[in-house]
Amino acid sequence: DSGVTQTPKHLITATGQRVTLRCSPRSGDLSVYWYQQSLDQGLQFLIHYYNGEERAKGNILERFSAQQFPDLHSELNLSSLELGDSALYFCASSPGGGLAGVDEQFFGPGTRLTVL
Amino acid sequence: GQNIDQPTEMTATEGAIVQINCTYQTSGFNGLFWYQQHAGEAPTFLSYNVLDGLEEKGRFSSFLSRSKGYSYLLLKELQMKDSASYLCAVRDRSSASKIIFGSGTRLSIRP
Questions:
Q1: Which CA distances in Å does B110 have to A62, B57, B67?
Q2: Which end of chain B is flanked by fewer CB atoms within 10 Å, N or C?
Q3: Cβ atoms within 10 A of the Cβ of A94, count?
Q4: Contact assignment for A56 to B91 by CB distance below 8 Å
Q5: Residue A23: exposure state from Cβ atoms within 10 A (0-12, 13-18, ≥19)
């Protein structure tokens, strides 16, 4: 158990819908990262928040958005869902800002999203 | 931009040693990570290299050569539980905190 929690564990929805994935970082960690992992692709970086502020953005679609709240939990919002959005979505947390040093990322168990 | 290459699949025998290679191209190297990921589970951190040389941690070691854009993960005394995907990831200085992951090497251990 990494100490990072993600809800829900599984989500099944239809195309065109909107969903929210939630992540609570480890106690004391200030950074939250979101990743998408599809069967045919590796782990794709989406976005990084540090202490409430956006720090880095990957190839995140405009239909996706995220935020980190004052209590440091984070939410990833996915809208106008398409079949290709079906994937495992991981969040990870780390103590620091991720700019240097090991700043090890601890991954949550993931949310498996299925779009039908 | 960044590019990370590692073999897609490898097979090794229980008790043996296996080396998983990773080559990368970045515009500003700022650290290389190895993660282990069992099927359907979250990745877990194995090692971090930012300077050239070998980092040893129990049965696992990781090597880095920045001039060659090359790293390897060495697993000794292989156990069946080592069957997993091994992900090489690079932090690029020009991309701030973004870490780019390779597609992973799926390692199968046979008895």
A1: 44, 23, 35
A2: C
A3: 24
A4: no
A5: buried
For residues B109 and A26, give the distance between their C-alpha atoms in angstroms, rounded to a whole number.
33
The residue written with tokens 């990957």 in the block is: A58
Q: What share of chain A is helix, strand, coil (3-state, %, to 5)?
A: 5, 50, 45
The residue among B46, B32, B30 whose CA lies nearest residue B85 is B46
CA B66 to chain centre: 15
Task: For chain A, 116 residues long, give each residue's pLDDT as a single digit of tens.
Answer: 889 999 999 999 999 999 999 999 999 999 999 999 998 778 999 999 999 999 988 889 999 999 999 999 999 999 999 999 999 999 999 998 877 777 889 999 999 999 99
Q: What are phi and psi of A112, to 5 degrees?
A: -90, 115
Q: CB within 8 A of B38, min separation 6: which ones?
A: B83, B84, B85
3-state class (DSSP) for residue B68: coil
Q: Which of A35, A56, A108 sits opposite B97 (nearest CB)?
A: A56
**CB contact residues (below 8 A), chain B span 46-105, against chain A:** 48, 50, 87, 89, 91, 95-104
pLDDT, one tens digit per residue, over B49-95 is: 999 999 999 999 999 999 999 999 999 999 999 999 999 999 877 77
> Cα separation of B12 and B110, whole Å?
6
Tell me how far the alpha carbon of residue A92 is from its chain's centroid. Answer: 7
